[in-house]
Structure formats: structure tokens, C-alpha cells
């Protein structure tokens, strides 16, 4: 794990930094131009150290070796402690970069987490508004979002079972389970799977809403709408699942994750959520499923989506 001082620093400052970093839990050693530093001792520099860590273009750097796996929580804790040690030093604060796989993973996670609530909120709000303009109901968009969360939960559960816990290796052509899943995979899966689930929902609800607009009651509209879309949704789900299943047997674990996740999401959503749960929820709700406050009537009449 490299620690880089882009503008360089006096030897005394670097020596102090090396010794303080070496005292951090789970740090095995710190090597730099001044030698090899551990918690117990300091070894004099070798000629190779002078070449490897020589000041280049005004920058100095130190190499930190961790005593734990780079992707483990303990490694992440060590990196955060090292960064706090640097931030607390007036001579180094804002002038030192901590890199490496662990630091990169921390930065990626924090970058995703900082924007994730906003992104999810925007996606959910946009789909809810579109469903309202399609159906004229404020209840059905809520039902759609909740059911999509259920199918996504099943998908992420399957990913944990297979790739985090290491099951079904033989069926998927073999892979190495590291006890964790690439942090970007669930985000990408969420975007694709949520979009597909809402796509299927719009097929069904648009047809049901069309029958309601033609004067049918809730139950009749549900039966006609579901009957008209069931086969189309089933065929579409089967077709795209076959295509995506090819990714599940890829030699790249990341593609396997996407393949298994998307196939699971599509099949669960199409055959359990949209063709079973959604119709039954609408049936239970009855006319209440189509509730719309009167103050939203002008908005719906002006902006509604034609069926």
C-alpha cells in the first residue's frame, strides 16, 4: 500500500510518519528510503531502498505492508487509522495520498454511499410518477415499488448464497468465493432489474387501466388485462433469461454475478411477483387500488399517459 507525498517532505517528517504508521494495528511494516520500520525495530536502508524510494520529481513515498487481507474489514480500519494519523499532523495534512487496493475500495464504497440515497430516491420517484400518470392511481405506484423491492431482495439473497457463501460452484463452471461481492455489482443489478420489473408492471397495469377506462369493474378489468399480458410477459422473461444465462457460465466472476442476478430477478419478478402477487394484491384492494385524491384530478387529466 503506497503512501505518497507529492511535494516531498523533510527526512525527519518522513521518519516520524513511518514510525507512527508502523504502530498502527495490523500494519506489518513500513519501508521507505530510510529503511524498514516495524513496531519492534528499524532496519537500516539497503542500496536498493535508495533506488526504489528515491525522490522522483519532488515526490516521496513509503510502502506499507499489512498483516491482514487487503479486502478485510481490519485492513479498512487500518487504512482509516493511517489517514487519521496523517490528517492530525499539521505538516502532512492535505499533502499526503494513501493508495492501494484497500484505500481504493474504501473510496469507491464511500463515493457510492454518498450518492446512493439520492439516486434511489430519484429512480423511485420517477417510476412512481410515471405509474400514476399511466393508471391514475396513487396506490398502485406504491404497490409496484414494494413488490419490486421484494424481487430485488430475493435477487440479492441469491447472490449472497451463491457468490458470497460459495454454493453452486459446479453448476456455474467454478469460481472463487471471497466472502464478499464486488461493491459495484449490486448497484448495476439494481438499476437493470428494477427497470425490467417496472417494465413488466407497466405492461400489466396499462392493460388493466385500459379496461377500467372502458367501463369494466375492478375484477373484470384485472382478469382481462392479466389474460392479455400473461403470455407476453412470460415469453419475454424466458427469452431474456436464456440470453442472460450465458453470462452465468462466463469465466469472469463479475459476469457470473450479473448473469445469475439478472436471471433470478427476471424470473422471480415475472412469474412470482407480476403474474401472482401483483394481481392478487390488486384483487384484494379492489376499487381502493385505483384511489386518487381529488386535488390530483387536474394533474392526471392534463398529463396522463395514453394507453
TrEMBL record:
List the transmembrane segments: 116-134, 140-163, 175-196, 232-250, 257-277
Q: Does the keyword rRNA processing apply?
A: no
Taxonomy, superkingdom: Bacteria
Topology in the lipid bilayer:
Multi-pass membrane protein
Give the residue range of the signal peptide. Answer: none
Its subcellular locations are: Cell membrane
* SUPFAM superfamilies (UniProt xref): Multidrug efflux transporter AcrB transmembrane domain
What broad class describes the main subcellular location of this protein? membrane
Q: What are the Membrane transport protein MMPL domain coordinates in residue numbering?
A: 18-293
- Does the record bear Cell membrane in its keywords? yes
- Keyword set for this entry? Cell membrane, Membrane, Transmembrane, Transmembrane helix
GO CC annotation terms, alphabetical: plasma membrane
Q: Which residues form a coiled coil?
A: none
- Protein family per UniProt: Belongs to the resistance-nodulation-cell division (RND) (TC 2.A.6) family. MmpL subfamily.
Report what the protein is called.
Membrane transport protein MMPL domain-containing protein
UniProt source species: Gordonia crocea
Amino acid at each position: 500500500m503506497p503512501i505518497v507525498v507529492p511535494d516531498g517532505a523533510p527526512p525527519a517528517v518522513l521518519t516520524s510518519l513511518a514510525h507512527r504508521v508502523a504502530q498502527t494495528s495490523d500494519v506489518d511494516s513500513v519501508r521507505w528510503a530510510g529503511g524498514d520500520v516495524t513496531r519492534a525495530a528499524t532496519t537500516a536502508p539497503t542500496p536498493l531502498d535508495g533506488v526504489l524510494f528515491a525522490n522522483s520529481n519532488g515526490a516521496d513515498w513509503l510502502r506499507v505492508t499489512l498483516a491482514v487481507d487487503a479486502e478485510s474489514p481490519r485492513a479498512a480500519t487500518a487504512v482509516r487509522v493511517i489517514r487519521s494519523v496523517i490528517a492530525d499532523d499539521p505538516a502532512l495534512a492535505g499533502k499526503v495520498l494513501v493508495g492501494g487496493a484497500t484505500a481504493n475500495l474504501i473510496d469507491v464504497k464511500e463515493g457510492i454511499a454518498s450518492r446512493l440515497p439520492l439516486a434511489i430516491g430519484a429512480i423511485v420517484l420517477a417510476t412512481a410518477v410515471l405509474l400514476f400518470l399511466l393508471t391514475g392511481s396513487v396506490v398502485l405506484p406504491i404497490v409496484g415499488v414494494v413488490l419490486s423491492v421484494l424481487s430485488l431482495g430475493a435477487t440479492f439473497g441469491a447472490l449472497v448464497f451463491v457468490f458470497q457463501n460459495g454454493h453452486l460452484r459446479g453448476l456455474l463452471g467454478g469460481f472463487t468465493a471471497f466472502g464478499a461481492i464486488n461493491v459495484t455489482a449490486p448497484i448495476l443489478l439494481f438499476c437493470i432489474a428494477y427497470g425490467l420489473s417496472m417494465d413488466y408492471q407497466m405492461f400489466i397495469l396499462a392493460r388493466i387501466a385500459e379496461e377500467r377506462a372502458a367501463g369494466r369493474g375492478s375484477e373484470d378489468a384485472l382478469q382481462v388485462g392479466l389474460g392479455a399480458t400473461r403470455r407476453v410477459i412470460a415469453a419475454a422473461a424466458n427469452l431474456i433469461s436464456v440470453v442472460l444465462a450465458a453470462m452465468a457460465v462466463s469465466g469472469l466472476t463479475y459476469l457470473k454475478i450479473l448473469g445469475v442476478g439478472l436471471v433470478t430477478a427476471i424470473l422471480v419478478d415475472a412469474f412470482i411477483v407480476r403474474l401472482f402477487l401483483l394481481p392478487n394484491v390488486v384483487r384484494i384492494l379492489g376499487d381502493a387500488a385505483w384511489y386518487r385524491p381529488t386535488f390530483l384530478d387536474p394533474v392526471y387529466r392534463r398529463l396522463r399517459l395514453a394507453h
